[in-house]
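Researcher: Structure prediction, please.
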Amino acid sequence: MENALLIGLSRQMSLRRELDVVANNVANINTTGFKSDTVVFEEHLMPVARHDHFTGRDRRLSYVQDRSTWHDMGQGPIKQTNNPLDVSVDGNAFLVVDTPRGERYTRNGSFQINPQGELVTSEGYRVLGDGGPVQFQNNDRDITIARDGTVSVPEGARGRLRLVTFANAQLLQKDGSSTFAAPANAQPQAAELVHVIQGTVEQSNVRGVVEMTRMVEVTRSYTQIATLLQQQGDLRRSAIERLAEVPA
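Model: Predicted structure follows.
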């Protein structure tokens, strides 16, 4: 294939990847605690490929390479729910939950109590406190959650929500709609100067208008490149047909 077709194909592959990310953002616009993603691309220079029909730096062939995905950790809007088990995190920190795959970190503070009396997420994951899972007794009522995360009932405290932070949150890997996994090079640290707000939840930080606009832009760019590649293919086919003609 010609170099123009290969370069156009690399751009289409990148646009397809970006469209998947944008579509996932739009699909989670109403997911509590969801953090939007952005694809990061970079120029990839082929080490040996050249276009000898041009001179100087125009000989260099530049492709598009999907480098990574960037997480937007900006705080989403705070929604009042008046549910005493709901909390939102005010600051740069995460709540810790226990999943079958190990500890995970989330900004989704929409909690409930399971039949075993444990504080759990909407997915059923146990919410961890400083001393382990937050456990209630059968007759516990009037639950309050202080700004420092202390969970209490009139009879006494039932635990304190564990809040952690990371030196580089971009190292976290998504493991579900609103949970993150920490790789070995990203260790959680106890969060300071961070508070929780009872009776509220943090909504998705996806900006719907921006994401829909970006989806239109990506789709349009993909179509334009497809048209260009089609024209290149038609031009090549026409040239071969003309060269193959035998003079009468």
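Model: The two ends are 31 Å apart (CA to CA).
Researcher: Thanks, that helps.
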